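Changelog note: in this version the structure field was regenerated for every chain. One regenerated record is shown below for reference.
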Amino acid sequence: HVHFRAPGQEYKEDWNTGSAAAVAGGVTTVLDMPNNNPPIVSVKALEKKRKLVAGTSRVNFGFFIGATSDNAEEIKKAKGFAGIKIYMGASTGDLLVDKRDTLEKFFKEFPETVIAVHAEDNVCINQAAGQYKRLHDPEIHSKIRSAECAYEAVRAALHLAKKYGNRLHVCHVSSGVEVEEIRKFKIANATEHDVRVSCEVTPHHLFLTTDLYGVMGNFVKVNPPLREKSDVAALWKALEDRTIDIIATDHAPHTREEKGEDYWKAPSGVPGVQTSLPLMCDAVNRGEMNLTEVVKYMCVRPAEIFSMKRKGKIEKGYDADFTVVDMDLMKEVRDEDQLTKVGWTPYKGKKLKGWPVMTFVGGVLVYDGTVKDEFAGREVRF
């Protein structure tokens, strides 16, 4: 789950820098989101993006197409995409579907297409924003976009998924109330919907909390926002009991200058594709999970949920995408080592044990401590 910013915002990231950061982080395949400029909401825009990316990526790639209030018929003409991304709450970009009848139309008309939701209730957000409009401290972000706003959206999406039998994927769950609602749904509908409803968590929601606003300000402003320590504990529990299916980065780079703006102007999002696997390997070394679970959450289940052909396993007939990890290698995360174009990370100064040392994409060595000029990535088939 990445935002490589092309087309339209290449000053923040492009497929050269984004894919370099990915292979340095041991990532071999990315699914890019549609909130580009212009947004990817038509067959023409999707095909134009395909041509833009072809031959410029070191990693394998797939694309989401975005939902709007009136493009359902257009999406039916599109082919070869990972899923439909629906922003139930306004985020970075212009995509938003917050009317219940429009939302229901997508669930009704696309029962066999993955519907990936950014689950934050827009009415809830706007009501809270009015209460805090005179304040400028970044810590209000977690109050404006509260866990209750996320819960309301998740509950609505689950209701529609049950009604129409959809393949629903909830992106970046961030709170205890969300995972509890998803857990209850999965238990109640295990036979019918066990594979069809899934969710993901990001490393920044697993490792960062609201305590950091006082230190990092807008540099930890993300949508959905950071939560309390109790929410982080609930997310780890949901990984342990398999309520959460995927660990995904939501890599969303913005420049230092943009992040240095006033709270109300600064965009939401943090880079994360280069640090996600080291963070999880470090968690393995600290006994918080095992390596088999990391492989499941970051490789096997993503390939299964999004029906990626020839991905997710080391078996005959599968693509030769490999990451070699040194579980004893200790390094400090530094801004100057980040290959994302924006050149910063919210994990600066954190010492991690367990790092990727070689990355192969389609049998081609693209990283061995330095990034190779081998644009080996191909578009994923679904």
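Spot check on this record: The first helix runs from residue 15 to 24. The radius of gyration is 19 Å.
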